[in-house]
Amino acid sequence: MQDIIIGNHRIGEGNAPFIIAEMSGNHGQSLEKALEIVDAAADAGCQALKIQTSTPDMLTLDSREPDFIVRGANDDWEGQSLYELYTTNHTPFEWHAPIFARAAERGMVGFSSPFSVEAIDFLETLNCPIYKIASFENNWPDLIRRAARTGKPVIISTGMADLADLERMVRTVRDEGNDQVVLLKCTSTYPAVPLDTNLRTIPHLRAMFGCQVGLSDHTMGTGVGVAATVLGATVIEKHLTIRRSDGGPDSSFSMEPTEMRRLVQECQQAQQALGTVHYGPTAAEQKSLAFRRSIYVVKDIEAGELLTEDNIRVIRPGHGLAPHYLPQVLGRPARQAIRRGTALTWSVL
Fold first, then answer.
1. Model confidence over 5-46: pLDDT tens digits?
2. Domain 11-54+90-274 annotated CATH 3.20.20.70
3. Regarding beta strands 131-133 and 154-157, do their DSSP bridges make them parallel or antiparallel, or are they unpaired?
4. What is the rounded distance in angstroms from the CA atom of residue 156 to the CA atom of residue 225?
5. How far apart, in whole angstroms, are the C-alpha atoms of residue 327 and residue 331?
6. What residue segments make up the domains of the chain, in order of their start?
7. How far apart are CA 258 and CA 237, in angstroms?
8. 89-136 pLDDT tens trace
9. CATH number of 283-348
10. Are 167 and 193 in contact (CB under 8 A)?
11. What pTM value is reported for the model?
């Protein structure tokens, strides 16, 4: 499968995961705080900063009819109408340009999740380099199709999607002549728990659709992201806030900056640790060979004297014959006198 190039970053096997910090509504309707989150993402080592492009009217109706009231999804959302929730959560359109500019200044890719076709039209005026389709939008072909037609990478969270949904969304992108699709394994609960995460799906998705696969992670901590990296995730997305105690619609399942920095470091280390299939000492282990056991003379031996368990032993360091040769050398005569502390070699027998 092809790697995907985004700016100076390569998404693909053999590269550290592309780590996306999701701002969502954690800016608390303050541009100053939004820019603080951008800086925190950069300081943590993230490769990308993502926002969301929507208005409440793009998403729902201003209604408090029972169907429009949030029940049982997240304690911070409970009892709000969808319209109220999305009013709190949305990022004003006039903030997009300064947020993207700050991300670029800090060496990150700035991009967005559009929640309507009109949102993509707006983002195109800002030359948004990637489009992310959220799990709650992945059953809407028109949105996916419009994103695919830009010719830019399309990242799709797979929360709640069955196999038929997945096949449809990937085909929708590819039918537009766009093969730059990334699927993110996602559990659409807020927060999610590891038990529901099913990371073994990641290599299965990659094999089934022949595309880059990553993780959109709503669990707490770094463990799930690191495990996903080991299973081949090339993209990791996590929500970022300055302080969970600040509150907000997504704060309860967002990372703080120190946690995000640890995630970036641990995912990089996990990817590096995968290495290749290798047996025998590595180049780094060569010096450690001296600390293995080998056969040494432990008492002075005269020329012609037989080697016995009394005058030779398997000890450290490892400069003599390997221990598995002990049965072959016991009972053999020494060719010359050998001093105590000499590594036994074939040349003295």
1. 998 899 999 999 999 999 999 999 999 999 999 999 999 999
2. yes
3. parallel
4. 17
5. 9
6. 11-54+90-274, 283-348
7. 16
8. 899 999 999 999 999 999 999 999 999 999 999 999 999 999 999 999
9. 3.90.1210.10
10. no
11. 0.90
